[in-house]
Amino acid sequence: MPSVSETPFRLLPQITPENEHFWTGGAEGELRFLHCAACDTLVHPPQPRCPQCLAGGLSPRAVSGRARVATFTVNHQPWIPGFDPPYVVAIVEIEEQRDVRLMTNLVGCDPEAVHIDMPVRVVFEARDEGIHIPLFEPDPRGGEADPSGGGGDADR
Amino acid sequence: MPIGERAAVLSGIGQSKVGRRLGVDPLALTLDACIGAIEDAGLSRDDIDGLSTYPGGMIAGAPGFTGAGIPEVQDALRLELDWFCGGAELPGQLGSVVNACAAVAAGLARHVLCFRTVWESTAQGGGSRRGIGVSSGGGGGFRASGFMQWSLPFGAASAANWIAMFARRHFHEFGTTREQLAWIAINARRNAARNPGAIYREPMSVDDYLAARLISTPFGLYDCDVPVDGCTAVIVSAAETARDLRQPPPRFEAVGTALRGRPSWDQFDDLTTMALRDAARMMWERTDLRPADVDVAELYDGFSFLAMAWLEALGFCGRGEGGPFVEGGARIAIDGEIPLNTQGGQLSAGRLHGYGFLHEAVVQLRGQGGERQVPGDPRVAVAAAGGGPLASSLLLVAD
């Protein structure tokens, strides 16, 4: 998967044994979540047991990196020195399990063109200490990936 | 199931001076409000045997987010306490008042002094308001942990961003517009004009609202509340003490504190409702009263959309109908079908962080609203606070 070449200032996560798979998976081009083999559920944020079946022994699993925009905002307010607006903050639902959501930035598109249910795919921004920040960009294959006919509330 | 909150009444209210950049010690503001509430109730400080607050003094947060903790207030007033509780892991700011009701119902205390102090205006007055979690300046050594690791790396530093995304989803699902949302802000400003203590009192039009600079779409400046310095205090007392009080107190008919979805700003199941859906549902499960019985609604508007979401959650209109319901502002006006945020809300009267709504509910039930008094002798009021995974609501009745 492509990497982002521009690397503006960004506040970084504290890496721990529990979250390392998520924040460093981009080094291998992978978006990873903990997976429960007992009930085939992706678990996010990372937890010691599966919150569905309470099994332990969760292990990281790579997903396709494809997702859909659940909601978004175009931020215009300078909150963090060096991280300059405007920028798009979105919550995306990952394709394999839509109740797994990520807050992220949408890149590679006009903020005015962003819309809910827009198909997106992960792109990693490499930082120090092996951290790879998962951002999302428009997915050119998006139209094929939507047999359900798009978002809405039917599965909520 | 017993409705334990029926054992509690709201016996007194107090409020410090409220304003922008007062430059006053926040503990001094706190004592002003607390002493005012004790006097208002007709009690003395020797009667106070419980103390409750949100978020307590030991929390890290944006500058000025907390102004005084339990031990400081206890010591400053030399209170002899049988029960106390301060903290932030509560169902919203008014969760600290529900704690007081529970303490009274359990017989742990008879008169619980509850307070909330903010001094964000002074604490942040030297520069632009910074987002939660970046008070350290975001230097090279900073690393985000807990929930903030999932938001700060993406510049989603503020509840403005998180709640804007709930609003955007509501716009998408129900066709809500900024022109409709504007009426939450306009109504607040209209009511503030009748409140001498409000911060912003000049009239606001839809055009004024739309012309303000954007903060985080769909929110502009007037969708965001106004940081102030100030403290609000209330006293929750055992119902059997009512005859000792200065005036007949409103009683707690029902409270709602539920959080049945995931405790998260981004993983909550429904991105249009938030925890206030659960709190409101629980409150109505504990009473025979219905939304049509409510005479005045004081609903948290830290961001405009939250007040709209509370209107829906509490059943004043149907789910998703908040936009058309508030449009034009007639239904939510002081003389409308459900008067909303009669003091001007946090949007125009200042961010007293939840407690201001409870204070105003009591003012209205006592008929002390002056120019902003809801006509027709209101008997039932709802005060609600919170957004995202934090929410609680209180139903007060003046018999």
Keywords, please?
A: mainly beta; 3-stranded antiparallel β-sheet; 1 helix; globular; disordered C terminus; B: 399 residues; alpha/beta; Peroxisomal Thiolase, Chain A, domain 1; 5-stranded mixed β-sheet; 4-stranded mixed β-sheet; 12 strands
User: What low-confidence regions of chain A span 5 or more consecutive residues with pLDDT below 50?
Assistant: 144-156
- Number of DSSP E strands of chain B: 12
Shape, per Cα inertia axes of chain A: globular
- Rg of chain B: 20 Å
Q: How would a crystallographer describe the biggest sheet of chain A?
A: 5 strands, antiparallel
- What quaternary form is this? heterodimer
| Mean pLDDT, all residues of chain A | 90
Strand fraction of chain B: 15-25%
- Count of distinct structural domains of chain B: 1
Q: What does the average pLDDT of chain B come to?
A: 95
Strand percent estimate of chain A? 35-45%
Per-chain topology:
The complex is a heterodimer of chains A (156) and B (399).
Chain A: E1 12-13, H1 20-24, E2 31-36, E3 41-43, E4 59-63, E5 66-75, E6 87-94, E7 101-106, E8 119-126, E9 132-138
Antiparallel strand pairs in A: 2-3, 2-4, 5-6, 5-8, 6-7, 8-9
Chain B: E1 8-15, H1 26-41, E2 50-53, H2 70-77, E3 83-86, H3 95-105, E4 111-119, H4 120-123, E5 143-144, H5 159-174, H6 178-192, H7 206-211, E6 214-216, E7 219-220, E8 229-238, E9 251-256, H8 276-285, E10 296-299, H9 304-313, H10 322-326, H11 345-349, H12 355-365, E11 380-387, E12 390-397
Helix pairs in contact in B: 6-9, 8-9
Polypeptide structure, described:
The complex is a heterodimer of chains A (156) and B (399). Chain A has 156 residues and is mainly β. Chain A has one domain (20-143). Chain A has 1 helix and 9 strands; from the N terminus they run βαββββββββ. A 5-stranded antiparallel sheet of chain A has the order 7-6-5-8-9, with no helix packed on it. In chain A, strands 3-2-4 form a 3-stranded antiparallel sheet. Chain A starts with 11 loop residues before the first strand and ends in an 18-residue tail after the last strand. The relative contact order of chain A is 0.21. By secondary structure, chain B is of the alpha/beta class. Chain B has a single domain, classed as Peroxisomal Thiolase, Chain A, domain 1 (3-Layer(aba) Sandwich). Chain B contains 12 helices and 12 strands. In chain B, strands 1-8-4-2-3 form a 5-stranded mixed sheet. Chain B has a 4-stranded mixed sheet with strand order 9-12-11-10, with helices on both faces. Chain B has a two-stranded antiparallel sheet with strand order 6-7. In chain B, helix 8 (276-285) runs parallel beside helix 9 (304-313). The longest helix of chain B is centred in the first third of the chain and has 16 residues, at 26-41. At the A-B interface, strand 1, strand 5, strand 6 and strand 7 of A face strand 5, helix 5 and strand 6 of B.
